[in-house]
Amino acid sequence: EPHVTFDNVTFEYEDGRTILNGLSFEVPAGSSLAIVGPSGAGKSTIGRLLFRFYDPQGGRILIDGQDIASVQQDSVRAAIGIVPQDSVLFNDTLRYNIAYGAENAGEEQVTQGAKDAALMPLIERLPDGFDTTVGERGLKLSGGEKQRVAIARTLVKNPPILLLDEATSALDTRTEREILGTLKRLEEGRTTIAIAHRLSTVADADRILVLDSGELAESGTHGELLSQN
Ligand code: ADP
Ligand code: ADP
Asked: Keyword NAD: yes or no (predicted)?
């Protein structure tokens, strides 16, 4: 059974313009799906529906076979970790910023071991001398460092589903490449949905959907998509 299913989903915002038009796709458990397409295609809207910021007017969205419209919003959200493009950090210590993710998840779910395992690869790439316990504050970080902290904050709750919404798009190419490498390790064992505007950043995804005006234009592996065009 697929972990995440969009089944003939239609959606419009309050202005009544159709944004998603009968969209269907499945994401097998533990696999990665990338969604690419031009700006305005509806990519971020897919994430907002999965996180239940909005509910679709038609069709169904399933997690583990269960229609998320019939599940408590909180329990849907507990299963999903989001990394947005521009993460907002608190002007507080990095430890506070990262622990905030764990507190949101309910501290009892997060063992110290799981926390450290998720955090180490992220923290060790922060600049030399950065102390996550005292002193250093979120607002002092560069874009790339901020994203590392944001990823750590998301992963401390150990979400089975990871939703990356242009998580590296604001970064320079080199920083982006480094963070994509880190993410690849951290995605292991999770079902990942990565929204991106460049095909090259999602070349490793198990499957890529090309979305255009709320409809599926193409899908396949990176190699398949390149050979079709
Ligand atoms: P993408 O992520 O592919 O750039 P989005 O999902 O953000 O696309 O947006 C799809 C379309 O929905 C765009 O035309 C956008 O202007 C419109 N849209 C996004 N949010 C809203 C909103 N809150 N109200 C009305 N229209 C919106
Ligand atoms: P780096 O030093 O890691 O290359 P920069 O801080 O130079 O990143 O980022 C370039 C631009 O992108 C800056 O204007 C920065 O504000 C913005 N930016 C990148 N990522 C983020 C982020 N996660 N949060 C806020 N702004 C970001």
From this structure: no
Q: What are phi and psi of 138, to 5 degrees?
A: -50, -40
- Bridge partners, 6 (sequence order): 25, 61
Hey, what are 194's tokens?
A: 């990565």
- Between the CA of 90 and the centroid of ligand 2 the distance, in Å, is 16
147 lines ligand 2 (CB under 6 A): yes
What type of residue sits at position 107? E
User: What CA–CA distance (Å, rounded) separates 26 from 62?
Assistant: 9
Contact 156, 81 (CB under 8 A): no
Kindly list the strands in the beta sheet with 66-67, ordered across the sheet, starting from the edge strand earlier in the chain: 18-27, 4-12, 58-63, 66-67
45 lines ligand 2 (CB under 6 A): no
Average pLDDT over residues 107-118: 52
Q: What ipTM did this prediction achieve?
A: 0.68
Percentage of the residues of the chain whose pLDDT score is greater than 70? 83
pLDDT higher than 50, residue 110: no
Q: Convert the pLDDT of each residue in 89-109 to its tens digit.
A: 887 777 777 777 666 555 444
DSSP string, 8-60: EEEEE-TT--EEEEEEEEEE-TT-EEEEE-STTSSHHHHHHHHTTSS--SEEE
